[in-house]
Amino acid sequence: MVEGSMTQGAGQEPEMRTPTVRDFRVPAYVHEAGPYAQPPGPPPQQAGPYDRSAEPYDQAADPYVGPADPYAGPADPYVRSGPYAGPPPHGEGGAPAEVPEGYTPTERDLPVINRGDTVQVPVEPEAGRTPSPDKGPGPLYVVGDVHGYLDELVAALREKGLIDAEARWVAGTSRLWFLGDFTDRGPDGIGVIDLVMRLSAEAAAVGGYCKALMGNHELLLLGARRFGDTPVNSGAGTATFQAAWLLNGGQKTDMERLQDHHLQWMARLDAMELADGHLLVHSDTTAYLDYGDSIEAVNDTIRETLTRHDADECWDLFRKFTKRFAFRDDGGAQAVRSLLETYGGSRIVHGHSPIPYLRGDVGSEDGGDSSTPRVEEPHVYADKLAIAMDGGVTMAGKLLVQQLPLDG
After folding, report:
1. pTM for this model (two decimals)
2. Fewest Cβ atoms nearer than 10 Å: which of 14, 275, 282, 328?
3. Could you tell me which residues come within 8 angstroms of residue 253 by beta carbon, excluding any fewer than 6 positions away?
4. What pLDDT score does 156 carry?
């Protein structure tokens, strides 16, 4: 395992060594079809900005697509039949493709409930939940790490009344922020990205919004696609993005279905944002201080770093965003204050570190057996200045969706 020492944020936190290539391992799982796979026969007609079943996809008209990525791989040969189509065939004729040596599947072995197995009842938002546009913005929600668990995400958003039974936005002017890490480990990372992109368009059309932050797994997937097995200086020897991606739960089906507009969307994500006094970030680290003294500067610096397509620069960015635990233990509250004083806000909200691991319920990053307490709500800590949102969906925990502010 490659490790590197933590870069200090203005001297606010003790030096600690944290994993940089393998930031969190989960048990191996068995591949299975997602519950949103299309049944045999013609696809249903669905209206939406990402429904490509009715007509050929026009990449030039896609608002998320910019100039072609010179590092992107060949065009994806698979076209999904609808916004929730399951993974495409892995090989010719639908046969599983040959699995590369050393690849460990990490999908979760859970029972699957197909859409036809349940009665589909439209879910209306709770009365009074969403104000009309002339009354200003609606309530603010944040979503923790998803890691490809599309089913759990859809269920959690429906539970909060943000989407209906067909996974369409019904929350009006509500505001929704995803804290990053959409792919890897779970069965349908590309399906998650497709859903978030579509909800962004649907929410904007009615005066709300659905936005997303950059997580370390977005950086990892971008690096694996752009640089593959190109050696990089890891700080502790030679490493590659491809090896790190596989070690961190990279899914072969995600890579096969990854298209240019997904790459462009990920590369343009902001790293941090301020919403209603909450400083939203992905990682519980002070490494953001290395990239600028304002939110705008940090976001611009990281975006420019990705634009330069330098493998070593991108690796250093990924390495810093894998660091964790800066806000717990002695000095944790002061580390949070250093970020709040620099970027604004009265509380920081982050994902990245699964709450059972953050709280010490499991002693290592390999934890997550039947004895691990199931997380049901966010974790408020560091003198109530920090809110952790990664419920540990990869550890049989809950995918958390929380309205802010949160008492704690």
Report:
1. 0.70
2. 14
3. 31, 87, 88, 90, 187, 188, 190
4. 98
